[in-house]
């Protein structure tokens, strides 16, 4: 099954523009006086799964949140450097942040469905975009739920509260909610760390299927998960990008001592 | 020092704490229950017909005794002596009066089976023994024909009203118009109208005479007679002969009168409808004003305001505003809203009517606005509390779907905080419905001739003064102590005020429960 999506391995240190979904250039980010991200430069390949690993507190969430400018919500946050998406710098002050966030979806560690019906959750983003037509919304909700492999479980209770779903279903609902906007990039910040192993496996399979629709960036604590699902892996340590290459290489023959220490469990 | 903690084992300490809290809680409950029982019993007594006695008592002021039909309640003074509160009628006070009689001055007291409590339309009461009816032709039909005769009287009254409305008031208006146009006194149009007016007036007089011929002949306990026009009688209750069923009917109709009619005899009888209406309408307007303002202020404070010392200071002063005595708000309302704001509005828009003020006088709108200011802190504090409970994860989820701050507030934060908002509104309603002092400064009055809502444009008269249950109760509490009936009308009004607050609260709580279920997290 997974074989279907296998493809040639790219050299992420030397990606062409056409193969790049996001390009980060000299990104520095501070929370107050704390220098959280330091001189990050990288290219994230299109339609691949890229994993970010590293000790907790090393800046993984902050880095992916820079991709949809969610860090703007924190008053003490400052940043420098550029992030290119579709050839434009999203850190530019004229960037339309609302539109950017419809292009770059995000799923968080804890499932956070809104206290509304399943239908309203999935159509939330579209309704914000001004989509009002009932047919249009119905179709979008159905296809998003199908993409998130949740349709069969909820098709008879679309108008019941999302709160009654199980944790794994809620997380897939949140994925569907993001997919409904047809994003180019989907950011998953430790999407399975609050779920049981079986549900985790289910979501991992889902990701493999989703990468033909969008570029996936996943933050994870769990190295087995990174090795299992991702095509490329980036290792972050104390706000710096230490090593970034295809997952096979990173997990079998890491170049840097710090990476080796981390993946062999010598710290963290 | 040997402290309590060292003397007791942990288990003992725990049970000690539990018994103290349980004791205090039951004390509180007891106080609450006794207030309720007092109000329900005294308020209920207002509607329950009390028996009529034939009583003979000595009046030391005139050094004579008299025999009357009366309703009596006994009360024990602090000194231990017993005093009777007596409501009675006799030849010198045919329409009822009240007095206090010392127990040793009461010579005789016996149930008077034949006597009746005759309620008149003006709110007064005659205690007497009905004998027979009197009609125009001088015949004396028996009491059993009462209903039939009453119907005829009512038909005549209707006819008179009809003439007044269709002819007399129209002619009166036309004449007034002639006055305005300075038409001469002997102009033919005026003469014709005058003649017309006289004709219809003569007819109503005739009908009135006809109607007043229907009378009820009654005898007081001392044997003197009185004839009461049937048109004046509201109802005749032969209390002592009534069955339980009839008494319950009387109570029901009494409650209905109480709820649906205007007060009579300086708020001691009749109903409290205008006050009930005024109270509910004022609370309603207050809610409409305070909710959006309170919610907007809370949203600003907790979502938009920078997190600095200035915001903290504002927050503290908002909480402190909840502790300002209500009369201060009343004075503020009078000084700022009524005189300053109202006065300036008058100068701007109603200058032609000055010096008579239009907006620059206490009225319903200023009262609702004052109460809104008074309850604003409660709404702000409760709403902020509700907003704080919205999980950051949900806000982030909304932003991550491309929502702006305003959209996130509107579609995610406010719905989830709505039970908190409702809590604030509930507290505001409870507070506003019970306030009296500030209202008396800004628009509530003992008696208002018109309701603030009627069929006349613009239907809702925000500038009118209005009646309020709290004011009615305050007013009732100052009636003379001999006025047993008036006092229990006050208790009945208390009971009603409690019911109003209860109902308003229950409605709000139900709404909150629904919202909570819907936005359960
Ligand atoms: N809103 C914030 N305000 C201040 N410091 C923050 C904030 N968010 C994260 N940080 C700090 O930035 C660093 C990186 O955090 P984060 O990106 O969440 O780490 P990770 O996701 O890798 O565990 C941490 O030291 C954390 O304390
Ligand atoms: Mg994190």
UniProtKB/TrEMBL annotation, chain A:
Top-level taxon of the source organism: Bacteria
Matches recorded under SUPFAM superfamilies: P-loop containing nucleoside triphosphate hydrolases
ABC transporter domain mapped to chain residues: 22-263
Annotated CDD domains: ABC_PstB_phosphate_transporter
Keywords, sorted A to Z: ATP-binding, Cell inner membrane, Cell membrane, Membrane, Nucleotide-binding, Phosphate transport, Translocase, Transport
UniProt xrefs under InterPro entries: AAA+_ATPase, ABC_transporter-like_ATP-bd, ABC_transporter-like_CS, P-loop_NTPase, PstB-like
Record-level Gene Ontology MF annotations: ATP binding
Pfam family, one: ABC_tran
NCBIfam families xref list: 3a0107s01c2 (TIGR00972)
Listed name of the protein: Phosphate ABC transporter ATP-binding protein PstB
Species per Swiss-Prot/TrEMBL record: Alteromonas salexigens
């Amino acid at each position: 099954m997974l074989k279907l999506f296998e493809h040639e391995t790219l050299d992420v240190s030397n990606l062409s523009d056409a193969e790049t979904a996001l390009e980060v250039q000299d990104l520095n980010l501070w929370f107050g006086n704390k220098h959280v991200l330091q001189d990050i430069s990288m290219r994230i390949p299109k339609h691949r799964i890229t994993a970010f690993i590293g000790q907790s507190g090393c800046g993984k969430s902050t880095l992916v949140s820079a991709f949809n400018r969610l860090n703007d919500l924190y008053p003490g946050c400052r940043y420098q450097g550029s992030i290119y998406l579709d050839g434009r710098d999203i850190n530019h002050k004229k960037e339309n942040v609302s539109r950017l966030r419809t292009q770059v979806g995000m799923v968080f560690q804890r499932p956070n469905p809104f206290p509304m019906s399943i239908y309203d959750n999935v159509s939330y983003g579209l309704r914000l975009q001004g989509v009002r037509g009932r047919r249009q919304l119905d179709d979008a909700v159905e296809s998003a739920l199908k993409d998130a492999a949740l349709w069969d479980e909820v098709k008879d209770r679309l108008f019941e509260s999302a709160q009654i779903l199980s944790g794994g279903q809620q997380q897939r609902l949140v994925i569907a909610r993001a997919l409904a906007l047809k994003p180019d990039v989907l950011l998953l910040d430790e999407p399975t760390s609050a779920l049981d192993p079986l549900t985790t496996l289910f979501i991992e399979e889902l990701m493999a299927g989703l990468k033909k629709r969008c570029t996936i960036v996943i933050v994870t604590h769990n190295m087995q998960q990174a090795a299992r699902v991702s095509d490329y892996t980036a290792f972050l340590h104390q706000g710096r990008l230490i090593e970034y290459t295809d997952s096979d290489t990173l997990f079998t023959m890491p170049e840097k001592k710090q990476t080796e220490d981390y993946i062999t469990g010598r710290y963290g | 020092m040997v402290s309590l903690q060292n003397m007791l084992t942990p288990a003992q300490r725990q049970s000690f704490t539990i018994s103290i809290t349980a004791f205090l809680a039951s004390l509180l409950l007891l106080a609450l229950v006794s207030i309720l029982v007092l109000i329900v019993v005294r308020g209920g007594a207002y509607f329950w017909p009390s028996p009529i006695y034939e009583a003979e008592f000595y009046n030391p002021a005139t050094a004579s005794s008299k025999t009357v039909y009366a309703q009596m309640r006994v009360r024990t003074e602090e000194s231990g002596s017993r005093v009777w509160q007596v409501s009675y009628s006799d030849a010198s006070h045919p329409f009822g009066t009240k007095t206090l009689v010392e127990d040793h001055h009461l010579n005789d007291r016996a149930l008077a089976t034949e006597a009746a409590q005759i309620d008149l339309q003006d709110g007064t009461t005659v205690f007497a023994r009905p004998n027979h009816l009197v009609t125009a032709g001088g015949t004396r039909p028996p009491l059993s024909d009462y209903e039939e005769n009453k119907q005829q009287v009512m038909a005549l009254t209707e006819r008179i009203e009809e003439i007044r409305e269709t002819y007399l008031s129209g002619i009166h208006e036309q004449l007034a118009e002639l006055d305005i146009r300075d038409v001469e006194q002997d102009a033919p149009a005026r003469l014709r109208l005058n003649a017309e007016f006289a004709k219809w007036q003569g007819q109503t007089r005739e009908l009135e005479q006809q109607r007043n011929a229907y009378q009820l002949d009654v005898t007081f306990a001392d044997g003197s007679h009185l004839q009461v026009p049937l048109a004046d009688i509201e109802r005749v209750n032969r209390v002592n002969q009534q069955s339980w069923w009839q008494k319950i009917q009387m109570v029901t109709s009494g409650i209905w009168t109480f709820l649906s009619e205007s007060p009579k005899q300086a708020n001691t009888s009749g109903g409290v409808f205008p006050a009930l209406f005024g109270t509910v309408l004022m609370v309603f307007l207050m809610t409409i004003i305070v909710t959006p303002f309170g919610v907007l202020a809370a949203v600003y404070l907790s979502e938009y305001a920078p997190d600095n010392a200035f915001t903290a200071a504002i927050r503290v002063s908002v909480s402190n505003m909840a502790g300002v005595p209500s009369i201060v708000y009343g004075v503020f309302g009078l000084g700022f809203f009524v005189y300053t704001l109202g006065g300036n509005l008058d100068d701007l828009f109603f200058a032609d009517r000055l010096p008579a003020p239009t907006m620059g006088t206490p009225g319903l709108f200023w009262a609702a606005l004052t109460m809104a200011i008074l309850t604003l802190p409660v709404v702000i504090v409760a709403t902020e509390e509700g907003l704080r409970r919205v999980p950051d994860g949900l806000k982030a989820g909304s932003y991550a779907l491309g929502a702006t701050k305003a959209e996130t507030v509107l579609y995610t934060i406010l719905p989830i905080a709505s039970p908190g908002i409702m809590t604030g509104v509930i507290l505001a309603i409870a507070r506003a419905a019970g306030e009296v002092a500030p209202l008396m400064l800004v628009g509530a009055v003992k008696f208002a001739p018109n309701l603030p809502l009627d069929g006349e444009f613009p239907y809702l008269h925000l500038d009118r003064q209005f009646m309020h249950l709290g004011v009615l109760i305050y007013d009732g509490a100052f009636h003379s102590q001999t006025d047993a009936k008036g006092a229990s009308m006050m208790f009945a009004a208390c009971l009603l005020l409690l019911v109003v607050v209860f109902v308003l609260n229950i409605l709000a709580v139900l709404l909150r429960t629904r919202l909570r279920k819907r936005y359960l997290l």
